[in-house]
Inverse folding.
């Protein structure tokens, strides 16, 4: 199985996120349950862009931090899914965590990709498992203190 990661930024990414750790994300989705071949698109947007999608696709007003959309690769030209992250939300959340913005942007891409790989947080136990998994992958690409 081969998953190719495509990173698209409609806004300027945090400097530490360049180059985007695509290979780490590809490894993660394979190890965490995404099957098949194709591309996973990671798109960095601002609050207004993600707010439009949040209203259009989730009928929720205002920006959110991350949205993930799974696709059938046969119907979507080989695209397995898309993960959208708001750099504005990530920057605010990074300040709250006292972490670099790039680490929070990465955390959100990991979170969205885990959803595409079949993880969810609809119960307390599932949430705990998903957050632990998420933080392992965050640490792998952006170790604390880096």
């Amino acid at each position: 199985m081969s998953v190719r990661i495509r990173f698209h930024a409609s806004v300027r990414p945090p400097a530490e996120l360049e180059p985007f750790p695509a290979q780490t994300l590809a490894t993660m989705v394979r190890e965490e349950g995404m099957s098949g071949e194709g591309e996973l698109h990671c798109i960095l947007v601002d609050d207004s862009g993600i707010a439009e999608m949040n209203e259009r696709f989730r009928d929720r007003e205002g920006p959110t931090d991350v949205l993930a959309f799974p696709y059938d690769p046969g119907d979507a030209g080989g695209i397995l899914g898309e993960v959208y992250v708001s750099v504005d939300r990530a920057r605010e959340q990074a300040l709250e965590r006292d972490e670099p913005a790039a680490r929070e942007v990465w955390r959100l891409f990991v979170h969205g990709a885990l959803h595409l790989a079949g993880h969810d947080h609809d119960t307390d136990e599932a949430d705990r498992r998903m957050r632990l998994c998420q933080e392992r992958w965050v640490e792998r690409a952006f170790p604390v203190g880096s």
Remarks:
- Residues 95 and 101 are 8 Å apart (CA to CA).
- The two ends are 31 Å apart (CA to CA).
